[in-house]
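quick one before i forget lol
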Amino acid sequence: MLCEAENQPLSANRLAYWIERATRAAGLATTRKPKGTGPHVLRHTFCSHLAMKGAPARAIQELAGHRDLTTTQRYMHLSPAALDSAIRLLAGPIGAPHGGAHGEAASAPIAKC
């Protein structure tokens, strides 16, 4: 939970305002309520990055505060590279090690259908 001064919970509106100001200050937008920013986008990014780093879906669900795993799965977008890495897991024999540091799979090209 994010807090303001005196340990008061940060409201969604206040967080959105801070994100809007930061977006404009960084030169990423010039209008009020820039498209593609806000708490909702941060939530998607948070869940997606955890998924791409291999965090279990149930852990992401708990961290995101979702009651239903289906909700969490809507937030878990994977990059094309993460999808390719998942397919590469099938490239070697069963039981063989499947990657280098952090579990990355070998960098052999993947055939696309």
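fyi Residues 87 and 113 are 12 Å apart (CA to CA).
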